[in-house]
Specification:
Elements lengths: L6 H13 L10 H21 L3 H34 L12 H22 L9 H7 L7 H6 L2 E6 L3 E6 L2 E5 L4 E5 H9 L3 E3 L2
Antiparallel strand pairs: 1-4, 1-5, 2-3
Length: 200
């Protein structure tokens, strides 16, 4: 399939994913083939730039930009359908249509959902909703330098929108693809729920 991958193919696939309710079937090597295509484009751009063929390099750069944009939309569409299939517990929507990479994502997602549900049922995860109230009732105290150094923080890559979350008494809206610094205990919760991934 490597030879079939190009900007027009990816554009057509975006349209197909948007048009179809169910997941479009693709070869198991789809993501690898797209990576090879993009890597080849980068090499060609570097070669043409060295040769000072600015017109050809500019054309290839535009092809690269378009192709990366199409790939991003394909991934977004496919992830959305995978999430919907998991939410509805309907494996038939995606049966036999997942690439190996997507199969791993689906299994990790299913495990995260099961673990989170179990922890909620056991009462192991409960966010403090009184934090804002307690903050208004108590006088604000400026942290000392030592206290700030003791508090640990983590950098988190947000994997899906979290529209309303209370962290340290503040209501926040976290968007998919955000990179945020959070207190470690909140970062652990978001990481465990599969809503984000700790980077540090």
């Amino acid at each position: 399939m490597k030879g079939d991958i190009n900007r027009n193919f990816l554009n057509s696939m975006v349209r197909l994913e948007i048009k179809n309710i169910e997941l479009t079937e693709v070869p198991s090597t789809f993501y690898k083939d797209v990576k090879n295509y993009l890597d080849d484009l980068r090499t060609r751009i570097e070669t043409e730039t060295i040769k000072k063929n600015s017109r050809t390099a500019s054309r290839l750069n535009q092809e690269m930009e378009d192709s990366e944009g199409f790939l991003k939309r394909i991934v977004e569409q496919r992830i959305s359908k995978i999430l919907q299939a998991r939410a509805l517990s309907d494996k038939e929507m995606i049966e036999g249509k997942l690439t190996p990479e997507e199969q791993i994502f689906y299994e990790n997602l299913s495990n995260a959902v099961s673990d989170f549900s179990e922890e909620l049922l056991k009462g192991e995860i409960i966010l403090e909703k009184n934090e804002q109230k307690e903050k208004t009732e108590k006088p604000e105290v400026t942290d000392t330098k030592e206290e700030k150094e003791e508090e640990k923080f983590s950098i988190v890559h947000i994997l899906q929108d979290i529209p309303d979350v209370s962290i340290m008494g503040r209501k926040l809206i976290l968007r998919k693809e955000d990179i945020v610094t959070l207190p470690e205990k909140y970062a652990d919760i978001i990481n465990k729920q599969g809503l984000g991934k700790k980077l540090t």
